[in-house]
Amino acid sequence: MHENEFYDDLAGALEQSWRLLEEAIDDTTSPVRTPVLISVATDGLAQGRTVVLRGINRQQRQLQIYTDVRSAKVAQLRAQPACTLVAYQPNPMMQLRLGSGAIVNHNNAITHQAWAMMPGPNRCNYLTHPDPGSISVQATDGRPAINAESVPTNDENEIAYSHFAVIVFTINQLEWLYLPRRGHRRARFSWNGVDSLKSDWLIP
Ligand SMILES: Cc1cc2nc3c(=O)[nH]c(=O)nc-3n(C[C@H](O)[C@H](O)[C@H](O)COP(=O)(O)O)c2cc1C
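The joint structure predicted for all components is written out below.
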């Protein structure tokens, strides 16, 4: 999109935000593809980490990531589904803050479909033993010795799938920040119901 289409146009800024997210799904070079996911731990402290966007559904305002069900983020999001994803594109400088509610999918139709599409080497990432985040006496990637093709055996595949989770985020607030030299722009889009969108310019 040309800057004129969103610089002073709320609807254009929202459109630009969705396009950034949609393009990031298939573009492995897009920095927007690896946002920081911030959840809240049971001690009340914020916890952030980088994740890869794997899917988007603009109509339902949903994003997807893949993770290990044993990871700390899963327990945190199950206890407190309210979270934020922050994505940053450096050139031109644009930031998206996505206030969301998270649902962890495990061993259901959504994980089944994602697993069917996943290449063997990627499946091996869900074979770590012991659980991700455990202390280890030695430096290790935590996975069993993988064969030359990096394809899990049938037994390994079953174990790996039992660790696989798909987190679906439903965005309820999208904050867009754009920082060109000629003057900054900031806008907030909030959805209360399915279709009730509130759009505001904010002071950057
Ligand atoms: C570039 C990059 C991409 C990553 N993508 C994911 C991802 O899609 N899912 C995931 O669970 N962890 C991903 N990680 C690892 C997380 O940042 C984090 O270290 C790990 O998930 C443990 O987080 P937790 O203990 O808070 O759950 C990625 C890390 C980097 C550096």
